[in-house]
Structure formats: C-alpha cells, structure tokens
Amino acid sequence: QVSQAKQDLHSSCLQGLAHGGLLLCRYLLEDLHAAGAQTLRRVDCLALAREVLPRVLAATRCSAWAVSQQDELNVGAGEAEGDFSTETFSAETGEGEGEESIAPAARVIINGSWLTIKEVGAVTGRLARMLLTPGTQREDGGGRAREEVAAILERLGDNLLEILEEVKHNGASEKAHLGLTDLVGPLLETGDPKLEGMPYAWLSRLRRHALRPHQTGSDIVRRSAGLPFALVALAKAEPKGLPKKLLPLGMRTFLDIASAGPGAGAGDDGDGGGPGGRAFITTFPSAGDAGIVLNVLSYFPRVHALNMLSKVFNDSELATDTSGFYADGLKLAIRGFADERWEVRNGASQLYSTLVVRMIGFKNVWRVETSRKAITSSEFFDRFGALHAFFRVELEEATESLGACQGGGDDDDDDGGDTRVLPATLVHPSLLPILGVLSRLGGSLKEGENDALSPRRLAPLVQRCCLAQSLALRNLAADSFSPLVPPSEAPTCWRDLAQRAKALASGEERGGANALHGAARQLRVLCERNAPDLRLQDREDMVEAIAETLGDLAECCSRRLVSCPFARSEAVEAAYYAAKFALGACKNQRSKILLWESFAGMDAVTGVTGGGRGEYEFEAAVARLVVALLGHARGAGADLHGDLASRLRATALSNLRSERYEVRLATLEEVESRWDDLHSGGLDPAALHGALREAVAAEGHHGALSVALRLLGRLSRHDEEVLAEYSTPSQLREDAAVALAVALEPTHEALRSDALSCSGHLASAALRLGEATHHKEKED
After folding, report:
1. Lowest mean pLDDT among 116-120, 531-535, 647-651, 742-746
2. Is the pTM of this model over 0.70?
3. How far is CA 188 from CA 33, 107, 202, 227, 485, in A?
4. Least enclosed by CB within 10 Å: which of 193, 323, 638, 750?
5. Residues 253, 254, 257, 259: what is their CA dihedral angle, to the nearest 10 degrees?
C-alpha cells in the first residue's frame, strides 16, 4: 500500500493506505506478547522490530503530510455536492485523471492518512512494550543488543514526536499521543539511565520546537495541534504512585515560555511578549551540552505554551499533580488578557476558563440552585495564597485607571472633569477576569482584616468598581463584593449602603445614577447571597438593619426622587430580596406584621405605571415585589381583607393585563413560583381564572403564554366545589379547545408541550365538574 501510494495516493487511500497492514501488525504484536510474555527472547523481538520499524517510518512519511496541511486540502461547498468527480493524487507529481469516487479526493486522502497515523501510534506502543517486557531480558544478546533496542525505541519516539509536531488533525494527534504514552511509560520503569533519559530529551525537543524561529500563523492553528497532546503524553506516562519529575519540569518550562522566558515568570513583571518583533531569550538544558540559547523574535512560542498548559490543566487524570501550578497559571492567564496580540489573548482566555473550572467548579454560579456548593473566598485564598497579593495589586492598578478614565477629580481641576463615556476596551484588562473569579466564590468565613489573606482586604477596591460607567461592570463588581463580606459585618454593611443610597437619591451626596445603581446592587446581593447563610445572631441583626433602613430604601425606589429607571429597578430588587429574607427570618409576629405593612406601603408598590425609556425593567421588578408580598401576607399574619392586601391584589391582576410584556411575564412567573402561598388566600381563584383566560386568548409572546397555560392547568386541579365557584364545564371545554389549538400550531416546542398538558388538565376538570354537577342535580 505504501508503494502504491507513492504512485497514486488517492487509490491507496481508498483502500485505507497502510491502515490494514499496521492493524494486522498490531494484533500480531498483541498476540505474541500475550502468548509469550515470559518466554519471548530479546533476539526474537529485535528481529521483529527490525522488520516493523522501517515500515512504520515509511507509512508515517507517506501519510503525515496530508494531515499536516489540512487547510490546503479542505473540501469546498461545491465539491461536497452532486457527483464526486475526483482526481487521483500522486505523492510525487500531484496529478492524475478524473474518476468517480465515494467522496471528494481531499476527504479520502485525509481519512486514509489519519487512520494510518492512528495505527502508527498504536503499533509503536505495542512494539515498545514487547521490547521492554522483563521476560525478554533472559537472553539479552549482550550490550550490542541493548544498544540496538535503545536505538529502535529512540527512533520510534522521534517518529511520534515528528507526527505530533507537524500534524494539524486532532484525531491523528490524539491517537499518536496514546502511542507516545505507551512508549514512555515502560521506558521510565526500566531503571536504565539511558532509556529513562529519553523522555527528558523528548521534552527538550518539544521546547526547542515551540521556540524555533521563523514560525507563521499556520503553526498555531487548531490550538497548536499536536504539541499539547505531546506534553500530556509525557506527563501521563510517569508511573503512578511515585513523585512526578517530567510534569513539574514541563509545567515550569512552559509557564516561563508563556511569561516571556526565565526571569519573567508567572509572578514577575514581564513585557508580555509584546508585538511580533519583540524578542525574548530563553535558556534550557539539553542532553549532551551545557545549554541552548534561542533568541525568538515572535509571539508564537507564547501561544504554543498557553495552549499546552491549557491541555494539561484540563486533563482530569493530572488534576492532583497540576494543582500546585494553578495559582501561577491563573496569574499568567489574567496577565495574558493585556497582550497586544489577539492570538495570545485567545490562548490566555482558554487557559483562564480551564483554571476557573479546575479551581472553583464547573458552572458553579451562585444564582443556579442546582450547582454544588461553591468554594468560599476564605478557602480560596487559603489554598492559593499567592493570588491574594496579585489580585490586590491588579485591582489597585485597575481602579486607578478606571477612576482616571472616568474623570474622578475636583471640579476646579480641568483635567479631572472628563465625563466622557468609557469604552470597554479602556477598562484595565485584568479587572473583568479577577471580578469573574471573585463573583463565583462563596461567602467569606473570616472575620475582620487582621489576617493577611482575609478577603475583606479586597472589598474596598471592588466597591470602587461599583461606581463604573458600565452597567455590566457595576453588576459584576457587586456580585464580587458579596463573597468578601464577613458574616458579622453584613448588617453594618447593609446600614452603610442603605444610608449612602438614600443620600445619593436625595442629592445630599454627589455621584449620580451610576453610584446609586451600584449601591442598590450591593444591597440586593447582600440579601440574596449573604443573608440566608448568616448565623442566628447575625440574622437577627440583619433583620433589625433592614427594618431601620426600609424608609431609606423606599426613597431609592421613588419615581419622585430617582429619575433613572435602572437605578430604581435595582432598588426594588433589593427590597424584594430584603422582604424575602426579613419576613422569613423575623421571629416576632408583631414585628413581622409591621415589616410587611412597611413593604406593602412603599410608594413604588402601589404607584402609577407607565413611562418612558427603560421603565419596563422598573415596572417588572415592582410586579415581582407585589406578587411576592401577597405570597408573604398569610405567613406574616397580615390582614388579607385589609386595604393594603386589596390594593396588592388589584395591582397584581392589573399587571397581568399590562401593555408591557416584561411586566406580564414577571407577574406570571412570580405567581407560578409562589403558587402554594397564593393559593391559600393571596389571590382570589375566580379573578385569577378570568385574568389567565384573557392572557391565554390575547398573549402573543410564547414565554408568557407558556407560563399562563401552566397556571391555568394548575388552577383546574382544584376540587369540584372550588371549580364550581368560578367556572362551568362548558367554559373548561372552551379553554381546553383553545389550549389544544395552541398545541397543534407549529410554534415553539416547549409552548406546544405546555399547551397540550394544559388542555389535558382542563378536559379532565370539565369531566369531573360535569359529573359532580350531574350527580348533585340527580340528588336534588
């Protein structure tokens, strides 16, 4: 097949190139090794290896080029359609005649080549294990035979390294790296210094290849292709249960390369590699000489190193052994966001996301109820102490640059009054990655700032970011502030923020809508994240703090004082979570009633709706708060027939008919989440049934319609006596027909499912109510 491929590569690849022959060879080696593991002589193994080696090398030479230049062999859209009139390919001339084929020629060649490369790796691993089996050393043939075995193994390893250095096919890289793992593992267990030194020489070769000059953009495509696989293979091949040597050496080497060479490590100030013309010099030991010094005039080595580190950190089998490098890796990734080259920033972002998953958890977001418990901020800095000082330095620099760009000076200073809008590209590159890490942590367990690693030391710097012009940055900064607050300081922090928010809203303190929004967001997050986890005494103090400052919070929700709807909506969200916590944690029944009445009497809750740009968010937040207070009414011991409760009910039903989709959706979702509480007296079933029927008939948005259908279905599950108070069998049948019509429309799949379920519940309720009515008439 290899000989045929030299004349007609396409025809040979139609037959799998050398895949079949190598597969047969692999099976033969496995059978020989299994049958004669204790009786096989080294001379016999050597004879077989002499025959296999040149064929493996020839198959590699014939197939590696195709999976090393896939960009040139890509299949165009036109070529992938219709009849495949392809050309036969010659490895020497590249020409041939057209013929019918099962696929485009490029696809056939790539498929045959990568299958061949896959088997090259597998055969290499089996051959190495056979040569290094302890039983084959009974008749070793003397020192010359040992030298020949070492030469064969070295050539096999070099061949796999050449594949991994050149190929751009992920499947070929993965299979070749498995072969390298099978080769390196037995070498490290031989006890022979020469054989054990080969993996270290290959690691040095890997470094030299990553640092070689005259690289181009094609070298870093597909995440550096096989180079990350080669480093993983060397690391995973080390014997389990013994201290790792190759892995720490490789990690430190490539951390230095990614940081722009020794002397500018992950924790030092380096030039970041800079533009492509900026040079750095790296020195590393190599076998046989004192060292090699390479002067690299390119940023490509940094990209290679970042891609290789990401691959190693992402491997779950190496997680324990690489955990010691997490802090340096995260520093490197965060600083990589400042690089001038997008290729370096891209590699840094991949490394950052990998390490966040490893250090904190996959999708470990505090808003997701199903996520596992997050690592707390105090635990995080206890494990990765070096990051505390790094975060502090970077945040200080970031907040200084943020304040300078936003014009934080005196009014008399002409240079300090710049109020231009800050583009996202001018935000310090380390700021968002650091806030992203902090926002995913759990609440701090350490009190005060006496401990050098206390998360509380970072809180003032993070709070400065809550004044930023960017709404997203203020939100992220507030989310990052919450894990830094010790439990005992939460009530005091709430009081200070509420008083400052009131001063900003009333004009007593300057800062504008951004500062008010940032303060309100911090209040919201304190009640949403910190308050539920407080100890008993701290919970009581928090309830007291909320009760004392509720008037201040109400002013921040007022249209009369605050013109910005986004700041008002955040204040209403803070009130929502404050009511949820305080009404549940308060133990004194009288105090609980007063709290509920204070929340229900806020001007924003019963004020007029409608307005200009951005008011939809404020009105949606108010709609949620109204329904939530109705749900809390019975538990708080409030008068369900009083003026406050009646006004809340009227407002909630009015919101179901609002012109704003956001208001309708917020009301429906809150009713669904608090169904059990509202069912016990918060909302009149008859009024709710009428509003839901109107919503199902008139709603044009599939999200709100889905919730309305689910609620209508749940309402129909009442017993017959309750159903008879607000509905009839004919009405229920009409509603079921409407729901069924929605289910039969080719619309959103989730909507069809909810509509079908609703129609079933309504039809069942109609049957039940009809039977009960007929039975009652019969009794009468």
Report:
1. 742-746
2. yes
3. 20, 39, 13, 21, 50
4. 193
5. -110
Q: Rounded mean pLDDT of 482-509?
A: 93
Report which residue type is found at 37.
A
Residue 108 confidence (pLDDT) above 80: yes
Residue 326, C-beta contacts closer than 8 angstroms, at least 6 positions apart = 313, 355, 358, 359, 384
- Is pLDDT larger for residue 424 or for residue 583? 583
Q: Is 506 exposed, middle or buried (0-12, 13-18, 19+ CB in 10 A)?
A: middle
* Cα 552 from Cα 161, distance rounded (Å): 68
How many Å apart are CA 270 and CA 526, to the nearest integer? 38
Buried b (16+ CB within 10 A) or exposed e, 117-131: bbbbbbbbbbbbbbb
**Placement of tokens 């013994």 in the chain:** 242
Dist CA 131 CA 400 (whole Å): 63
Residue 729 in contact with residue 770, Cβ under 8 Å? yes
pLDDT tens, position by position, 28-50? 888 887 776 556 676 778 888 99
| Spatial separation of the C-alpha atoms in residues 640 and 647, rounded to whole Å | 11
Q: Helix, strand, coil: what percent of the chain each, to 5?
A: 70, 5, 30
State which amino acid sits at residue 610.
G
C-alpha–C-alpha distance, residues 144 and 166, integer Å: 33
Can you spell out the DSSP letters for 590-605? HHHHHHHHHHHT-HHH
Q: How far, in Å, CA of 577 to CA of 148, rounded? A: 75
Give CA torsion, residues 505, 511, 514, 519, to 10 deg.
-60
Residues 550, 599 contacting (CB under 8 angstroms): yes
313 near 329, Cβ under 8 Å?
A: yes
- Residues pairing with 293 in the sheet: 283
Please report, as a single letter, which amino acid is at residue 731: Q
| Maximum distance among all Cα pairs of the chain, rounded to whole angstroms | 112
Q: Which residues pair with 281 in a beta bridge?
A: 295
**How would DSSP label each residue in 665-716?**
HHHHHHHHHTHHHIIIIIS-HHHHHHHHHHHHHH---HHHHHHHHHHHHHHT
3-state SS of 88-115 is CCCCCCCCCCEEECCCCHHHHHHHHHHH
Calculate the CA dihedral of residues 309, 310, 314, 319 and round it to 10 degrees.
Answer: 30
Residue the block writes with tokens 């201290």: 243
Cα–Cα distance measured from residue 687 to residue 691, given in angstroms and rounded to the nearest whole number: 6
pLDDT digits over 113-167, tens only?
989 999 999 999 999 988 887 655 444 556 788 889 999 999 999 999 999 999 8
The residue whose two tokens read 């635990």 is 379
Long-range contacts of 146-152 (CB under 8 A, 24+ apart): 146/192, 148/46, 149/42, 149/46, 149/49, 150/192, 150/194, 150/195, 150/198, 152/46, 152/49, 152/50, 152/53
Task: Render 462-484 in DSSP notation, one character per residue.
Answer: HHHHTT-S-HHHHHHHHHHHGGG
Residue with tokens 């909810």: 754
Distance CA 447, CA 500 (A): 23
Distance CA 159, CA 272 (A): 34
Least Cα distance to 465 among 439, 494, 493 occurs for 439
